[in-house]
């Protein structure tokens, strides 16, 4: 046991092998694709309303779908060119959604966007203007859930926020997108943090980074030597530390109440990728139209981190990373623990796509299921302190009322229970089913 | 020794009498007054407790019937009209006849017609697959084929056909209890009027996509071509969202639409082929006649025009 | 493009290597040191009994699954082998084969398969078999061969230290007098004592424990709480009257306590889910064991104690729950109060 043990969260947690194959590969911009497909719903909330027509010429950065209501997000053209068919396409959620196709012509940017790389430190805008700018730029949480960022920044009245936490944990195995952004754009991230602090009016910000990213921790420690209000905290590697609730527990030892929001305990959490997008949106007036995507997997020839325009089909990324190996059995959009398997290589990269993971055929299918042996490992692993085996039984029997009493809705779907189950039981499958059914009942 | 036995017997007897008295008093004091008719009604019900009537079990149904005092809104689909007549007799009220229903499978995308586009490897349950994605074939509306409906059927009235991958309903066993309809995440199953002499027709597709897309996904998908709509003389067929649907109330089983469908996806049950054929012949004849009539009219009109033209010329 | 269709399944897409067969293999490996020690002690008899028990258990499980329950045989997960080994560990090394057969049949048939196989049995199957044999064949089950004596199958029998103690105390002797008749504590620790096949050597069992802890097959909660309770309780009684009660170390090293604490009580299926529950379970076994040993008519009580506590597992499970995230937070209370106020304030 190490003497100077780093902080981590207390309830549950697992230790899968982290396999960060692409950690030392610098971010490279992917060449412009021939065609992009931009779904109008890439975020949590209402789909955006399409404001272009087939045949229109659009510039890079132009709004092509406007947000509908507050919990929604603008969608921008990520390339310049002509708008093609607007139809339902399969996206990385596994369902068909409306999407706008744009045939790429040149690379003609909106003039208002500052494409200079120079760092701008001075923050001129007022807090209100910042939130507005972020909303206009269509910034959403880039850790995976894609919750619109301006909603998070608008703290409900009567709630006092005293801490801003920056999530640089990247606890998902394989993924390195956030890690690379931290290594390559640390100064921009710090300015982004200051912008967020100004918008929220908080005095304290902490960047949480797991200690398998020692280089990133060092860079931030160097840069933040003279900063009183922003701190860096190394965290012990444990999954799912990148979960909002787990990060709050790890860094501040506070617990978000069941059904509550981080703001209930005075905290707002933003991902480092989002923070960088905020910097670009506020200082450079650049909307969220590209993001860093890790392409990885044991069979991938060149595991890489690409800067990709939103809407680029997955196949383009795979070709750039050395092609699709023969033995590929499964392709996951996101990390191996929470990502979604995709069936189609034309699925576009969305704002929340943090990685593309290739899994060989031999590891793609599930193994034999045994009876529950009551080992209690799922309970030990659950970061929310639930009893997954019990929830599985209840959900299977359709006893959703009982499952709700056992706090099934607290589940963050991190997959730790299914990961550790020695009997390979589909625990999360059934918990997710129970949650979906309960939510449906609520809506009815 | 004898004394011991005597005391034991006496005390135990006393204890027994005391307990009996207590039980008697309690049963008197806490007796629940229930309408006797509830028991009688429950007796004639099929006792399957399937919930098909909308009540949580047969006793609840009996209670509801007795309380309501009318059969307007309550009906036991399993027992059908025969049982409801008995219930009506017990309660001394008018029986309400209802047409019997049966579940139908509104998807005909068998393995042959609907190719797999990926391999599903999660827990074998349609409900779970439906929460994950749109399905392991291109069609986002079709049957997922893992048989949740079969599992939930209390009457063993369904089975999965291994050749087609679709559920099959056994006509004699299905009681229209609605369990499978509620279970199916894709709403493939639907209760349909059983029809006169068990004859019925329905469209076995739910795909609402554009014709070309739908056909790419499934060779027998309804493309919304509206040929059946045009053939129907009774307004029983509607086409909405590229999907044809038959209204069983308006349908007269004239069968003239059946063969208009390119992919023959208007399913007929208990109807002999000859009838369909004669209906088609009739339709073709009628169409021919209509066409001829039109042509004749056209000719007549042309003739009239010519006459007019001649007239003007003469003038 | 890769050949064939892609697989789609719900997350997570990776899985731990520690699956049921792996775990069972780990437990079997952990039991090997104890087995080797008993072979060293009792010679061929130990091998003979162990192999027979394993064979009977596997065959009976296969037969029941295949021909009675009509479902695929479940023997490949290795749990029947463990049951057989544990049953063998709990009987004398000179037990006749027909008694082993009966024991295996009871362990697998009644103890496990009648409840639906692995994962559904409320009681530890090996212990069910053992206790059944103990009650049905008291003579055969309590005539142990002398340790380290011989490699032949018909060895001289001797009593266990616990048996000597119980009989001696009944006869009116004091503990210190009886202690003189027994081997030293180092002999106890390494297993040079009379007793059942696998319970001899605390040392060998501890090796197994360390292996299982290292592989993360079991946690420390049950063994430690059970042993600590026994140590504490016997210690208290020993301090009260050293002439009537043996010292705690003697109790810890003799009989089936070590075997029970490491291999029997930690059985996943019949022990509680949560760490809290495991502690309660371990303490319960400890208390019952000590009570039976000191005040009961049997010299040994571990099997009974574990079986009794097995019956309490469902109850323990429903009370000893893991602390839920968000349930302990101070802020949470404040939040709840605020919510309540808001609810009250709204008309």
Entry summary:
Chain A is of the alpha/beta class. Helix content of chain A is 27%, strand content 20%.
Protein architecture, described:
The complex is a heterotrimer of chains A (444), B (315) and C (347). Chain A has helices spanning 127-136, 149-153, 177-184, 186-200, 214-223, 244-252, 272-283, 314-320, 361-364, 377-381, 388-396, 400-405, 416-420, 427-443; strands at 27-29, 35-39, 49-50, 57-58, 63-66, 75-76, 81-90, 96-104, 163-167, 204-210, 230-235, 267-271, 290-296, 304-309, 328-333, 340-342, 355-360. Chain A is α/β, with parallel strands linked by helices and 444 residues long. In chain A, the strands form four sheets. In chain A, strands 1-14-13-17-15-16 form a six-stranded mixed sheet. Helices cover 42% and strands 11% of the residues of chain B. Chain B is built from ten helices and nine strands. Chain B has helices at 2-29, 36-44, 58-68, 80-91, 126-132, 148-152, 179-183, 211-217, 227-231, 273-314, and strands spanning 101-105, 118-120, 158-160, 167-169, 189-193, 200-203, 237-240, 243-246, 266-269. In chain B, a hairpin with a 2-residue loop joins strand 7 (237-240) and strand 8 (243-246). In chain B, helix 2 (36-44) packs across helix 3 and helix 2 runs antiparallel to helix 4 (80-91). Chain B starts with a helix and ends with a helix. Chain C is mainly alpha-helical. In chain C, helix 4 crosses helix 5 and helix 5 runs antiparallel to helix 15 (302-319). The radius of gyration of chain C is 23 Å and the shape is globular. Chains in contact: A-B, A-C, B-C.
User: What is the CATH architecture annotation of the largest domain in chain A?
Assistant: 3-Layer(aba) Sandwich
Question: Averaging pLDDT over every residue of chain A, what do you get?
Answer: 91
Q: Helix segment count of chain C? A: 16
Q: Cα distance, first to last residue of chain C?
A: 63 Å
Could you tell me the number of beta strands of chain A? Answer: 17
- The CATH class of chain C, by name, is Mainly Alpha
Class by alpha and beta content of chain C: mainly alpha
What value does the Rg of chain A take, in angstroms? Answer: 21 Å
Summary tags:
heterotrimer, A: 444 residues, alpha/beta, Ubiquitin-like (UB roll), Rossmann fold, 3 domains, six-stranded mixed β-sheet, four-stranded antiparallel β-sheet, B: 315 residues, alpha+beta, 3-methyladenine DNA Glycosylase II, Chain A, domain 3, Alpha-Beta Plaits, two-stranded antiparallel ribbon
